[in-house]
Specification:
Helix content is about 40%, strand content about 10%. The chain has about 400 residues and is of the alpha/beta class. The chain has two domains: about 325 residues, Thiamin diphosphate (ThDP)-binding fold, Pyr/PP domains (Rossmann fold), CATH 3.40.50.970; about 55 residues, no CATH class.
């Protein structure tokens, strides 16, 4: 058990900001700065497009958290898996997904990473082993353990990085996952993006243990804190934890202190924190501070960041144009990919509004082509338009009971 004393989250974040670590080579440093600037501008434009009702559903922006994202992904190997939360536009871009496809996914278009089916909260790129964002708080934790277990079964030299928020550390999935990860020695790096608030609740109010790096020790998963506003510090820290996962086959936990400058979501009125607090954290802006350091150490010239911002501005606006031009999914595709299709695993039987007859799930596209739905619809329409039933006349005494009854509407 760590002997660190519990302190307030803000004070602890200040303590973690240690002396600057050595910069990577010049090319890498410029790449880190450019990628953070790209993610920042993408998020800003995503917010603007959401206000224009171009993007539907919910929108969670990671403005301010770029150093944690880029520092982490920059030291991951191509075969490593990454899984995140619902705030993952930047994570996908950092793993190499084209911003055009991410923006198109926000717009719900065919050109999106999931052909418009996932939206902002469910960005996914299996080709680059970004295994998606998840809308359920803590829902990605056990999936990360499953990815680590799969790597062991396959004998892959692959690690899994699972990024989640401070609020997710309170879920039942957290303890269960840490226990299994330690018990089975899974190659997983769990990274808490501690932005000090679980939605609108400060960490001091939602977690009895505010030093989240200690929260998994009782399950056998050691942890470490890092300044999530310093891209180099995150990079060095995560690199070592990935080494432990890859070589020692053991899970670890990283708590990265970061901060979101916008609300929990686009609909957040932000009544739970003072503007002065946001302004204080903006003084540690990960892009501005890293650029200043690169200028001070002669890696880039004054004005370099302005040039970078011009480049990413063009890139982001091209992404918007691409998303606008991308077609919406056809209605006939609404039920596609809901069922396992193949010879080994047959789909479930299904019923939907397009046909009343049960049918195999993989035959959704063909099921509506029968005439059954039309026949029933026409019968229903005819029934609704019939004249009110009239009472049959009573049989008179002089009427033969064997006679045919008077013909009526039924």
């Amino acid at each position: 058990m760590s002997d660190r004393e519990e302190t307030g989250a803000v004070e602890a974040a200040a303590e973690v900001a240690a002396a600057p670590r050595p910069l990577p080579d010049a090319d890498t440093s410029r790449e880190l700065l450019t990628l953070m600037a790209l993610i920042r501008r993408f998020e800003e434009e995503a917010g603007r497009q959401y206000q224009k009702a171009k993007a539907g559903g919910f929108l969670h922006l990671a403005i301010g958290e770029e150093a944690t994202i880029v520092g982490t992904t920059s030291v991951m190997a191509p075969q490593d898996y990454l899984i995140g939360t619902y705030r993952t536009h930047g994570h996908a871009i950092a793993r190499g997904t084209d911003p055009k496809n991410v923006m198109a996914e926000l717009f719900g278009r065919e050109g999106g990473t999931a052909r418009g089916r996932g939206g902002s909260m469910h960005i996914f790129d299996g080709e680059r082993r970004f295994m998606g964002g998840y809308g359920i708080v803590g829902g990605n934790l056990p999936i990360a353990a499953g990815l680590g277990l799969a790597s062991d079964y396959k004998g892959e030299d692959a690690c899994t990085v699972c990024m989640f928020g401070d609020g997710a550390s309170n879920t039942g999935n957290f303890g269960e996952t840490m226990n299994l990860a330690a018990l089975w020695s899974l190659p997983v790096v769990f990274l808490v993006e501690n932005n000090l608030y679980g939605m609108g609740t400060s960490i001091e109010r939602h977690s009895a243990i505010t030093d989240l790096s200690r929260k998994a020790e009782g399950h056998g998963v050691p942890g470490e804190r890092v300044d999530g506003m310093d891209v180099v510090a995150v990079r060095d820290c995560v690199r070592e934890h990935l080494r432990q996962a890859r070589e020692d086959r053991r899970p670890t936990l990283v708590e990265a202190f970061t901060y979101r400058y916008r609300g929990h979501s686009a609909a957040d009125p932000e009544v739970y924190r003072e503007k002065s607090e946001v302004q204080e954290w903006q003084q540690k802006d990960p892009i501005e501070t890293f650029n200043s350091r690169l200028v001070a150490e002669g890696v880039v010239e004054e004005g370099y960041l302005g040039t970078v911002r011009e480049q990413v501005e063009k890139q982001v606006m091209e992404a918007v144009a691409f998303a606008d031009a991308s077609p919406e999914p056809p209605l006939d595709s609404l039920y596609d990919n809901l069922y396992v299709v193949g010879e080994a695993e047959r789909g479930w039987y299904a019923v939907d509004e397009r046909t009343p007859d049960p049918h195999r799930g993989e035959r959704e596209r063909e099921a509506h082509k029968s005439d059954r739905a039309r026949e029933l619809a026409e019968a229903g329409a005819a029934y609704g338009g019939q004249a009110q039933r009239v009472a049959e006349p009573a049989v008179s005494d002089d009427e033969d009971e064997d006679d045919e009854p008077t013909e009526g509407p039924w």
